[in-house]
Amino acid sequence: MSAATIGRRSACTVVLASALAWAGSVPAWADPEPAPTVTDCSDVIALAVPGTWETSADADRTIVPGMLGQITGPLLAAVGSAPTAAAGSAPQTTVHSSSTRDLATAAPRSSAMSVRAEQVPYVAQVGGPIAGIATGNPLTLSQSRATGKSALEARATELAQACPLSKFVVLGYSQGALIAGDFLSEIGNRRGVIDPSRILAGALLSDPMRSASVDPSGSASTAATYSANSKSSAVAETLVGSDPGGEGVLGTRDGGMGVLAERVTTMCAPSDTVCSLSGKSKVVAAVVPLLNLTPEDLPNYVIGRGMEMVKNVAEADPQVLARAASSVIGELTKLGVAAATSPHSLPITLAEMVFSSTMLDDLAAVVNLPEFDALVSFTKPDELVQQASQAVSYLLLDAHRSYASSYTVNASGDTATQWIVKWLTGKIQAGL
Questions:
Q1: Ordered strands of the 167-173 beta sheet
Q2: Which residue stretches of 253-297 are H helix?
Q3: 348, exposed or middle or buried, with CB in 10 Å at 0-12, 13-18, 19+?
Q4: For labeling, which of 83, 171, 397, 414 is most exposed (least CB within 10 Å)?
Q5: Dist. CA 278–CA 280, nearest whole Å
Q6: Are 309 and 243 in contact (CB under 8 A)?
Q7: What is the pLDDT, as a whole number, of residue 174?
Q8: Is 432 helix (H, G, I), strand (E, B) or coil?
Q9: What pLDDT shows up at residue 205?
């Protein structure tokens, strides 16, 4: 065992022994605090935040489920820190949480750098009352996000204090990438619960707040090689693989990843609108905010959208506003004439106004709201097909599930999860 590893584990022993001694000194009349968790203070601790419906608040911390299990299992096998899970089962690691054994006497690992992984359990829901009809849980995305971030911060703080020499790898997928990205962004901008120096690496798959694409046109760029990457700004996370265009469906983070920008990678498969929303994804842009609404939020939401529309109209370019007014007046005049002269032709005139005239497009340029844009898109046959396909893709999540199977990020044919395993293995073995 290396002197560095012994030093790390000795430090952990001192910290934990002090904590246990303090706990034993609590007066009998006081409500005792829960005993600190005895933790194997590995050199590297991977914290995995699963996606929506992949975990729950009472999930077993020692089992990394779903998409991220396709990273932690092979990673631990590659660095020799844990046995591989049985075929068909979730990759897992052992966390010593109920023993007061001397950590300094733990059996040596087979690799120079000891590594362990665990998930961050949280109530991973989305959809609010709408989805609650089917799932029975009306938790909104914002509420679920808050519980996940709180759980991640609490666990990271606990481990950072118990294991002062350990470094962290933070992984996130889908809603978990949203939570992990928020966590890493705050740390990178020095507002987080631990110091940036404690973060070895971060990897985000389908981040709903992915930074805007390098290519503003939204067209996919050439697939990145294993060592290549692209960044839209100095503080943006590093994009690996092809550029899908657009940005995260929930926008982007102020300050990006800060000083962690070079240590945090992100991947987004083409057609995965969760992480590649563009101006073309009108229906998805209109629907996603509704996933954050509770019945109590609805009045404020409607009022807020109304006020935003008024503001947009007031600030519209005079020429754009004049064109919209002219279109509305012209089409209403046609309707009036049809109603007065040939009422039987009124349905045809109305259909022409909706499907053939430029009135709705001219109004959309003034109103400038995703909800109105989505409505207009349904009146155009070519856009209707595009919007329907994007909505179906968003709901069925085919591209969203491709990171461990069909979505490759380099010329060698590595999937996103395989690339991350290689990347992390290299960093860990190099002791970085």
A1: 115-119, 44-49, 167-173, 199-205, 264-267, 238-239
A2: 282-287
A3: exposed
A4: 83
A5: 5
A6: no
A7: 94
A8: coil
A9: 98
- The tokens for 230 are 């692209």
**CA 59, CA 308: separation in Å to the nearest integer?**
42
pTM of the model: 0.67
pLDDT tens digit sequence for 68-126 = 999 999 999 999 764 433 333 333 333 332 222 222 223 333 446 899 999 999 988 87
**pLDDT tens digits, one per residue of 319-349:** 988 888 888 898 888 888 888 888 887 788 7
115-119 and 44-49 strand pairing: parallel
How far is C-alpha 290 from the geometric centre of its chain's CA atoms?
A: 17
pLDDT in tens, 163-201: 999 999 999 999 999 999 999 999 999 999 999 999 999
d(CA 300, CA 297): 6
Backbone angles phi, psi at 299, to 5 degrees: -60, -45
CA distances from 123 to 49, 60, 71, 242, 407 (A): 11, 13, 22, 32, 28
The pair of structure tokens assigned to 176 is: 């978990």
Distances (CA, A) of 410 to 79, 170, 224, 264, 399: 23, 22, 5, 18, 17
The answer to whether 236 and 257 have CB atoms below 8 angstroms apart is yes
- The domain made up of 3-24+35-281+410-429 is a member of CATH 3.40.50.1820: yes
